[in-house]
Design the sequence.
């Protein structure tokens, strides 16, 4: 959904690469990589400190997939992208558009 010309589906997440599939190629020949990211932090919520953990499936395409394919498991990154729920899946997947060392 667009609100006043601003894209509302943007996510920034600091997480470690917990699992990484093999680099594959789409039928159009575009590199693709499936990942599982894990986040853990302490945040303030309703005036209380709260331990937060999250596990999220992610996918990267093109140059981002090639760059992520060689990064170490357990390494910490700041990921930027958008969420989408593929096909008949029940959970959203982070589509990584950019990432940098945190």
Sequence:
């Amino acid at each position: 959904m667009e609100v006043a010309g601003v894209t509302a589906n943007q996510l920034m997440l600091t997480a470690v690469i917990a699992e990484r599939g093999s680099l594959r190629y789409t039928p159009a020949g575009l590199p693709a990589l499936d990942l599982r990211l894990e986040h853990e932090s302490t945040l303030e919520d309703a005036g209380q400190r709260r331990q937060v953990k999250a596990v999220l499936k992610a996918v990267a395409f093109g140059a981002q997939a090639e760059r992520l394919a060689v990064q170490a498991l357990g390494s910490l990154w700041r990921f930027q992208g958008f969420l989408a729920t593929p096909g008949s899946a029940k959970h959203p997947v982070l589509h990584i558009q950019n990432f940098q060392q945190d």
In short: The chain is about 5% helix and 60% strand. The helical segments are 62-68. The chain has one domain: 10-101.
